[in-house]
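Hi support team,

I'm opening this ticket because the web form for multi-chain structure prediction keeps timing out on my end. I have pasted the exact lines I submitted so you can reproduce it. The total is 736 residues across two entries, so I didn't expect it to be a heavy job. Is there a limit I'm missing, or should I split the entries? Thanks in advance, R.K.
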Amino acid sequence: MMEFLSNFWVQLVIKLLIAALIVPLVGMVIGFAEMKLSAKMQSRVGPYFAGGRWGWAQLIADGVKFFQKEDLVPAEADRPVYKFAPVLVLVSAVAILVPIPFGPAVVGRDLDLGVFYVLAISTLSTIGVLMAGWSSANKYSLIGGLRAAGQLIAYELPLILAVVGAVIMAGTMSLTGIVNAQATWFSEHGWSLGMPFVLVQFVGFAVFMIASLAELARIPFDMPIAESELVMGYITEYSGFRFLFFFLAEFANMFSLSAIAATLFLGGYWAPGLSERMLNILGPGILFAKIGILVFIMIWFRWTFPRFREDQLQTIAWKWLVPISLANILATGVIKVIA
Amino acid sequence: MTVTDQDLVRHLSEAAVSIELQTPEMTLNIGPQHPSTHGVLRLVAQVDGERTHNVQPVIGYMHRGYEKLAEVRNYAQITTLINRIDWVSGYANEVPFIVATEKLMQLEVPERAQYIRLILTEMARISSHLVFMASYPLELGAATPLFFALRDRERVLDLLESVTGGRFHPNFNRIGGVKPNAGAGSTQRKVSQDLPKTFLGETKAAMDKVLESADEIEDLVAGNEIILARTKGIGVIPSDVAASFGLSGPNLRASGVNFDLRKVSDYLPYSKFEFNVPVGENGDCWDRWYLRLLEIRESARIIQQAVDSIPSGPLQAKVPKIFKVPKGEVYVRAENPKGEMGYYIVSDGGLGPYRVKIRSASFSNISILPWLLEGAIIPDIIAVMGSLDFVLGDVDR
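Hello R.K., no limit was hit. The queue was backed up. Here is the completed structure from your submission:
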């Protein structure tokens, strides 16, 4: 049995299956959580009838509905680009999960440059958004796509700079290595105590979360979609399962960016007092719990705040987040050298 | 003439400065189908990136020809139409028309009927302003205040319904009073119908709730830094410009002009109550939002006073079976939630008016849009447009 499992191709098939399942599954769970939580925040009931209890099957019903819809392509659209854009967005949401460790051994592939890979892949979805905006042959889509591009340039920088602090602390760019560094932070003193980096890297964590909200184009940074201004921004023309792809990708990206934040700053799969064996079993659950907290915060923001203006978004990025994260890097470096 | 090196350098540097990236402008149609044009307003904007110029509103998609329709109906039938002009505050539309007709007929309206009209008009104002409280944050991207505001609007609409039977289009006014008898029109003995017994008590309690939730909405919206950043200093209308474009209502007062027809005109007995007319300072989007919140509080105060002091008596003046309005013309204007609403009625002595001219608030209010939106960016277009609080039925009639 073990021999069979250790075969490269068998492992590949298992990993592919998990990857193919995790995105729709996570998308549905987060989507449902958003529906129910927003209902609570607005004193509504939310989904109620589908599935019998709490409307748990609402998202499944929605998904089926999207597949029944006609796949419309505008006459003037750039057909290949228009059709490929949602795929690219969804693929990037899947690919970003590769180096994220769910346990000491439960990891797609532990890359030495994991952080680098993750940040590079997370940009990919914006290219998909830009493609969608350009190819739709719709003025609202075009403006939405351009806003997304402007947002990417502004927020990729603080996102990367915010991570640098954690990387300096851990001394490695491997995500598994960063979790290990947090788990064994005090081991040289002989204490079996770890330290999540958020305790010392709070500034980096906050900047990362703000920048990832902008990266996700969620309120208060949802200018690329901006329903009251641009109708639906770059997804205005999409229908059917291509629309569903964008929809799923948003929730999947929420999941993966929260997973990265949890790994870098909250200790990832690690929890104090558990052996490595236990962590392999419980690790995914621990990481999911941490992700859940971050996703809840994102949903909370979404239903509390209005949207910024495009120029205000740029001001926040360039005048606040970039200098703050640079100062954070400087302080981290100095402390690292002294201590 | 020789060209020196210095000349050449200067020439080249000037050329470098004067080169600008030439980008073609795009014509963007915002509306008539668009999430935040309040129905079917269409704005044609020239867009260069996010920057727009020459924004022209195109109206008329909601034109239903009420002025012409009014000419072929008799006076009592017209209230059904004018209910639907500004559908967010249907009741308030009826009052000036009915008052104008009564002026032509020189009818003396019983005081109790006037008080009921006043209470219901102020309720219509509260419900209209609460819709604005709901929709304006939504246009800025915040979905949650909507539910707080609409929850309280429901209380007010329930009360309106309990008296008039209608939530949006009550059609409750009659010439000479308010809907007097259950058996109107029949020759049977007329059964007197008054307000529902619990109405006055419930109204007082509901107004306490409205005052409470006005505080809640203020906490939720005014305490939000992003809302302040989006609205302060945006879409500023100086007071002289506001007056010259014929703005009225909250939009005019937000610019610092203290003009309220409730204080000036006597179409309803407002002079018997104590209330303030809130006036803004800067005339920006924020002032227009905040002023409406203050007006909700003032309206609730007026209603509470009116409930305390409502006189008893008949609801209807003595009127003939068939209305013959004497020859003449009259203009009556009223302070509606959206601004000044006026009816100019010309009567030739027949059963219906010869001509009705409706002066609606939103029509004049949006005339300022091209001036106000010159050079604005797209998010500000939505913020400014929303802050004027117009209803397309009120624009096109």
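A quick check on our side: Chain A has one domain: 2-338. Let us know if the file doesn't open in your viewer.
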